[in-house]
Design goal:
The complex is a heterodimer of chains A (194) and B (136). Chain A has 194 residues and is mostly helical. Chain A has helices at residues 4-14, 18-40, 43-60, 70-92, 100-112, 122-141, 144-155, 160-167, 171-189. Among the domains of chain B are: 3-51, no CATH class; 81-124. The chains are: A mainly alpha (194), B mainly alpha (136).
Chain lengths: 194, 136
């Protein structure tokens, strides 16, 4: 981690500089929110976890040693929070349903205010939305270790090396988990892929 | 290469992680095995769908919500009113008090001038009583 800009930002964060902290949140909130939602599958939980991730960053920034990039470190905090929350919710049996309906509402509100060019026909859009929900549902049923690798690689487009650093596992483990995750997802969605 | 071996390499093949020989072997198998080719097409379609998942917008005012939580949990140690805004607040308060005092002093001075003016223009009661006595 030799980026002077990032080192300056880290020093400011360690000095609990308000503006630096706000800049950090602005820069990372979108990617971290998408990561959390794809792992957790619920908007309310994802919103709460997003806040908890940045609170942890604020609390633990002094322990950041720069062995990885700052964003890798934040990803690690976020994935750990997701895994712990998911376990907690499963234990409490609180996690009875994911908010797939919630997802549709959110997508609807976003598409209504977004770009209208190249908009698919209503039937295509309905089909696309249905597929999105099916994929999200299928991802939610994967085991934690497979789901996290799949989201990091295929939704967040991170490299194998970044995933190794985030999860602190060897390259071979990342590859084998990813392969199993994709094959399991394919089996779950096979009627919709042909 | 058999079906199982070919399918085990789908992920590495898709991500460009195979060496030349392995890639050639997988491609040769897919060209002659319709069953594995069908699996490969389904795999590719899945990857297209997953990578095309909608990018969701984060909730509004994440910064504010996080700062409020930190302020509350730190019992006001962090993200309270800043020193600069404290100085600004003190300065504005001082100026307001100063203006109020000036306004009060000006009002008092104006009142005194009015009283003095009215005293100067009012008829002398002693002179008035002597005039009355003279007429009588």
């Amino acid at each position: 981690m030799n980026d002077p800009g990032q080192q300056k930002l880290i020093r400011k964060l360690q000095a609990r500089d308000k503006r630096a902290f706000e800049q950090l949140i602005e820069e990372h909130q979108s990617r971290i929110y998408n990561l959390i939602f794809r792992i957790i599958g619920n908007h309310e939980e994802a919103e709460d976890l997003l806040q908890e991730v940045f609170i942890t960053v604020f609390k633990k920034i002094d322990s950041f040693r720069g062995e990885s990039s700052l964003s890798t470190w934040i990803y690690r905090i976020a994935t750990n929070h997701c895994i712990n929350r998911k376990k907690y919710l499963t234990r409490r049996k609180h996690y009875t349903k994911s908010s797939y309906g919630d997802l549709s509402e959110k997508e609807q509100s976003e598409s209504s205010g977004g770009i209208t060019e190249n908009l698919p026909r209503p039937d295509e859009m309905a089909e696309g939305k249905q597929m999105e929900q099916l994929i999200q549902k299928a991802i939610s049923t994967l085991d934690d270790e497979y789901r996290v690798v799949l989201v990091l690689r295929d939704v967040q487009n991170l490299s194998y090396e970044e995933i190794e650093q985030i999860l602190e596992v060897p390259a071979g483990t990342v590859k084998s988990r990813l392969h199993r995750a994709r094959m399991a997802l394919k089996e779950k969605l096979v009627p919709h892929l042909r | 290469m058999n079906h199982q071996e070919a399918r085990e390499l789908f992920t590495s093949y898709h991500d460009g992680e195979l060496n030349e020989n392995e890639r050639t072997a997988v491609e040769a198998h897919l060209s002659e095995c319709s069953e594995c080719n069908t699996e490969w097409l389904a795999y590719k379609k899945l990857m297209t769908e997953v990578s095309g998942l909608m990018n969701l917008s984060p909730p509004k005012d994440v910064v504010g919500a996080v700062e409020r939580k930190i302020h509350r949990r730190s019992k006001g140690k962090f993200f309270g009113r800043s020193r600069a805004s404290n100085i600004q607040f003190a300065l504005v308060s001082f100026i307001l008090v100063l203006l109020f005092m000036l306004a009060y002093l000006m009002l008092t001075a104006v009142n005194e001038i009015v009283v003095l003016d009215s005293d100067a223009t009012a008829p002398d009661p002693a002179a008035e009583s002597s005039d009355v006595l003279q007429k009588q």
